[in-house]
Amino acid sequence: MVTDYILEALRGKTTDLKIGNLETTMAGQLWHLRTKISGHFELGKLAELIKSLHPTPAVCGIPKEKAKTFILENEQYDRMFYTGYLGELNLRSGVERNTNPRNKENGVYRSILNSTELFVNLRCMKLDDPLATLFIGGGITSDSDPRKEWEETENKSKTILKVITD
């Protein structure tokens, strides 16, 4: 659902859209699902692109506007740093165009590219000496078991807690 939402949000705002395979990645003691999505966007349109993506169903639910309205009317909690985007903006990288390593003369030809890599951030921490406030949530569906969701949220917190307790 999240991948489909992101692809729809990017349609018409990006070119050369590519979708990677669903993969698992480890953060702390937890395994996460991830799908890499890449494409090109027009320079100066990054803010518009992010606004069309945020919040994703992983954070807000679907349908987006109905879920967002429900959260704002019922949650009675300031999410502050609960979610957002993290990453590198306009990271400069060189791309070698020489495909023959023995041809040293052509080794001087490189392309310099700007790239932006963003990740949906689902866990944050606010440090306000001497307090640390963790922002962690769970994905609740009609099939969710509240006790298991709470246990999963506690497990997610251990990744951040380890940083401040070690």
From TrEMBL:
- InterPro entries linked: ADC_synthase, Chorismate_C
Under the heading SUPFAM superfamilies, the entry gives:
ADC synthase
One protein family per Pfam: Chorismate_bind
Q: Which Gene3D superfamilies match?
A: Anthranilate synthase (3.60.120.10)
Q: Where is the Chorismate-utilising enzyme C-terminal domain?
A: 1-156
Q: What is this protein called?
A: Chorismate-binding protein
